Amino acid sequence: MRQSSPFEIIEGNSAAGLALLADHATNLLPPEYGRLGLPESAFERHIAYDIGVEALARRLAARLGVPAVLSCFSRLLIDPNRGEDDPTLIMKISDGAIVPGNHPISSEEWESRLNRFHRPYHRAVAETITAVGAASGKAPLVISLHSYTPAWKGTPRPWHAAVLWDSDPRAVNPLIEALEASGDVLVGNNEPYDGALRGDTMFRHCMEAGLAHALIEVRQDLIGDEIGVAEWDERLGPILAGLNERPELHEIRRYPSRTGPYAS
C-alpha cells in the first residue's frame, strides 16, 4: 500500500467532547520513496507503525461516536510523535535496522518531509481538537492510542497495557484504576516508556494547552488480530466513555511539564 493524504479524520460527534489520536496508525509511504531502501518485511514490524492501532482507533471512534485523527504515513519517513527539533524525528537506524533512505538526508529533504507530512498531520490534530472544544463548549479530553512490542532486546514486557503521561494526572489516575479493576490486566505506569517527551503530540496539543489527556499503549500481541482488537475495544470503550463523563476532565488546567518550562 502507498500513502496519499498525510492524515485521515474520522468524523464523529464533536459535541461529545472527546477526541482520539493515532500517531503511528499506518505503515504507508508515497510511491516516490519506494521502501526507503528497506525490505518489504520491515514494514510489517513495529519500526514502521504501531501494530493493531489503526483497527482499534477505528472501532473505538465508531463505538463512542467521536472524531479521530490517524496518521497516514510510516514513522520511518518522519515521526509525527516527535517535536520538530527532536534528533529522532527522522531515524537513520531503527531497532537495529539501517534506513538507507534516511541517511544521508539533505536539509531540503528534511524540511520537505516536515511540510508534506508532519505539519499537515499536526494541523489536522489541532483543528480537530479546536472543533471538539467549539462544538462541546468545554475543554476537550484527548486520548492517544499506541502499541508496543511484547519484548525488547530479549526482555519480555509483562504489562498488557500502559498509560504514559507527563504531570497532568486527571485522566491518568482514573484510567489506570479502571484498567486494573478487572483484575486481569497488568498496567504499566509510564512503562515501557516515559510519557514526558518535549515536543511530542501530547506535549504540543495537550500539556501546553492545559487539556486533560492520556496516552494508552496496548501490547501488540494482544491487538494483532481482529479478535484481540475487538476485545480491547470492548475493554476500553466503556472506560473512555466513563472518563469523558468526568467534569474535571473538561477544564483547562496547565500543569508544569517534567521536561522543563514552556516557551511561553
Automatic annotation (TrEMBL):
Xref: SUPFAM superfamilies: Zn-dependent exopeptidases (SSF53187)
Record-linked Pfam families: FGase
Keyword Magnesium listed: no
Coiled-coil regions listed in the entry: none
GO molecular function list: hydrolase activity
UniProt keyword list: Hydrolase
Keyword field contains Hydrolase: yes
UniProt protein name: Putative N-formylglutamate amidohydrolase
Upper taxonomic lineage: Bacteria, Pseudomonadati, Pseudomonadota, Alphaproteobacteria, Hyphomicrobiales
